Design the sequence.
């Protein structure tokens, strides 16, 4: 049992532990090309949150990782079977309820560890921060935390070399053999500027 993972710890352990920071990993359930599981973003969120929390815990930080929210904003992939969409307004409602619990119970720092490009929590946190002035709220996109080009040859986005490598490391039994990966071709926007930032 890892004492910094809420899903693994128990009420008895919590009687003698206090926490300063809650981490809320947030994923998505969606197709990842042909070869990666629908839970790719969830698996990444679970592992990156747990490993980060382990390092922080061992350095003396009082962190607790909440269970990963499995659905993200997928409004753009309506035609893909069982890509599960959670609207931003629904995410905002969930976030408010989570913050309400933490605020009431005296855990005044929350970090969202975002694992899905379609999720964007910054504006929500600005609004919720006004409603909960005692809370320190922040969000981090793990996939933007480091310069990818230092680690991977092929620049990509969704289900790219980075995600494929991560899944081959974290959960190789759920990755199809390389012959079935497809060409990796992606549909680009007709308006060039949209992909230029
Ligand atoms: Zn992904």
Sequence:
């Amino acid at each position: 049992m890892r004492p910094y993972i809420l899903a693994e710890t128990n009420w008895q352990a919590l009687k003698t532990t206090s926490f300063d920071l809650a981490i809320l990993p947030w994923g998505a359930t969606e197709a990842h090309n042909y070869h990666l599981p629908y839970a790719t973003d969830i698996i990444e969120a679970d592992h990156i949150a747990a490993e980060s929390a382990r390092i922080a815990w061992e350095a003396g930080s009082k962190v607790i990782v909440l269970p990963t929210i499995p659905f993200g904003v997928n409004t753009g992939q309506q035609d893909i079977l069982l890509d599960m969409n959670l609207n931003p307004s629904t995410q905002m409602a969930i976030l408010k309820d989570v913050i309400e619990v933490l605020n009431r119970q005296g855990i005044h720092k929350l970090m969202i560890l975002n694992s899905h490009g379609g999720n964007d929590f910054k504006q929500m946190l600005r609004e919720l921060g006004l409603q909960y002035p005692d809370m320190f709220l922040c969000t981090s996109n793990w996939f933007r935390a480091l310069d990818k080009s230092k680690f991977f040859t092929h620049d990509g986005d969704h289900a790219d070399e980075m995600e494929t490598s991560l899944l081959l490391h974290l959960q190789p039994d759920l990755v199809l053999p390389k012959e079935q990966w497809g060409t990796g071709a992606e549909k680009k926007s007709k308006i060039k500027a949209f992909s230029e930032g």
Q: What stands out?
A: Residues 32, 40-41, 158, 163 surround zinc ion (CB under 6 Å). The helical segments are 11-15, 40-58, 88-104, 122-131, 161-170. The longest strand covers residues 21-26. The beta strands are 21-26, 63-65, 109-114, 136-141.
